[in-house]
């Protein structure tokens, strides 16, 4: 189990550096496109890229939280009910912080169906 978490930790670290690379690459490309004759193409590419960067940054935040949970020893446990998160779910989504049941409840609440 501890080895599992170490593997997940290094996988997350690899993901993190990959995403950080995307963010850095886009910052570099922003720097010199003002003088580019193909400005509109660049602008289009940049809007595509900034969507990617926004996604990458959201992933990065999730990854940081997962790494913190590994350090705190709470990784693999549901943040809501404390149940063990099934290995298959963590395999599919290593940054998952809740079990499938609690994730479904949260999704239902986000849709506004809940009565609070
Ligand atoms: Zn739960």
At a glance:
The protein is 70% helix and 0% strand. It has 4 helices and no strands. Helix 1 (2-31) packs antiparallel against helix 2 (39-72).
Describe this structure in words.
This protein is mainly α and 116 residues long. The chain folds into two domains: 74 residues; 41 residues, no CATH class. Helix content is 70%, strand content 0%. It has four helices and no strands. Helix 1 packs antiparallel against helix 2. The mean pLDDT is 81. The structure holds zinc ion.
Measured on Cα atoms, how large is the radius of gyration?
19 Å
Q: Which residues sit in consecutive blocks of at least 5 with pLDDT less than 50? A: none
- Content-based structural category: mainly alpha
Number of domain modules = 2
Order of helices and strands: HHHH
Number of helices: 4
Number of strands: 0
Primary descriptors:
binds zinc ion, 116 residues, mainly alpha, 2 domains, single chain
List the topology elements.
Layout: H1 2-31, H2 39-72, H3 87-92, H4 100-110
Helix pairs in contact: 1-2
Bound molecules: zinc ion.
């Amino acid at each position: 189990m501890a080895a599992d978490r170490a593997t997940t930790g290094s996988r997350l670290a690899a993901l993190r550096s990959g995403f950080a690379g995307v963010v850095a690459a886009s910052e570099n490309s922003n720097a010199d496109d003002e003088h580019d004759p193909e400005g509109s193409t660049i602008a289009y590419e940049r809007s595509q890229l900034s969507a990617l960067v926004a996604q990458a940054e959201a992933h990065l935040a999730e990854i940081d939280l997962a790494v913190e949970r590994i350090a705190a020893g709470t990784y693999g446990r549901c943040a809501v009910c404390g149940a063990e998160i099934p290995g298959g779910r963590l395999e599919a989504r290593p940054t998952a912080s809740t079990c499938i049941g609690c994730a479904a409840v949260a999704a239902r609440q986000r849709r506004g169906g809940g009565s609070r």
